[in-house]
């Protein structure tokens, strides 16, 4: 009896490490009323929220592998000690400020140069599809609506989640579709487009109402621009990192080489906002006499696909080997 049982035990022991590793990295997506809960190895990573009354879908919270929150809580939570500026900066999202003259980035009184009447919003078009596994995948279709309900364009998006020994990842792929009979003008403006707003402690030192505030954060790009010098520069990737309770945490955004106008411009702010924006050329390059230099028109019936990866890691950009991780992403890994 023992000679039969022992080989089985040995086999189970040999197989266990691989099985445990797979379980640690497995992604489980759970559809709830207004969101999809994303767990990795049984622990919360983020939620993709689409039905809470906000003007767009977004991911919140974003948790590091050890549970540390990496993005801002405001305005999802009101009782925070964070800065309360820009309440439309909800954690991690896609939006642009000039789409056929409608602003899908700002909300309410945001951007004093425009009337609130021009602020649009997005809604789901159909059901949310999910797939579990080593990579969890959310697929949605969305409608971009003007304040009067007029349809501006539609999209198809695939948001994927996975993890490895280096950290956690979100791949955000979106295809914008112009209407069959109307071109879609993506206007030249700095407010956009694939963005994240980090936790207060991750920000660079900065002033709010002339009061020094912020964290210990630093910005660096693939081109070597750092901190304030990173704003408006072009690069393959942009990374933000900061120390907290004895650990350094970082968040990098990768611009896919297939994207329009790669390498993209980066709207990197000291207060913790940064994003990839392929449409803001005149703002970023100070081309005041060329306000439409970054305009891009998707022809009627046409489409534009944009692809980005978020890399949530420990350490600064060197310790986390951000350049090597970007090379993997660029190679399709």
List keywords for this structure.
globular, 3 helices, 333 residues, 4-stranded antiparallel β-sheet, mainly beta, 9-stranded antiparallel β-sheet
Rg: 21 Å
What percent of residues are in strands? 35-45%
Average pLDDT, rounded to a whole number, is 92
Task: State the major sheet.
Answer: 9 strands, antiparallel
Structure notes:
The chain is globular. The strands form five sheets. Strands 6, 7, 8, 9, 10, 15, 16, 17 and 21 form a nine-stranded antiparallel sheet that branches. The protein is built from three helices and 21 strands. It has helices at residues 2-25, 281-284, 322-330, and strands spanning 27-31, 35-40, 43-49, 58-59, 92-96, 121-124, 129-131, 136-145, 151-164, 167-177, 184-186, 192-197, 206-208, 211-213, 218-221, 237-244, 247-255, 265-268, 273-277, 296-298, 303-314. It is mainly β. The model is unreliable at 1-21 (pLDDT under 50). Strand 1 (27-31) and strand 2 (35-40) form a beta hairpin.
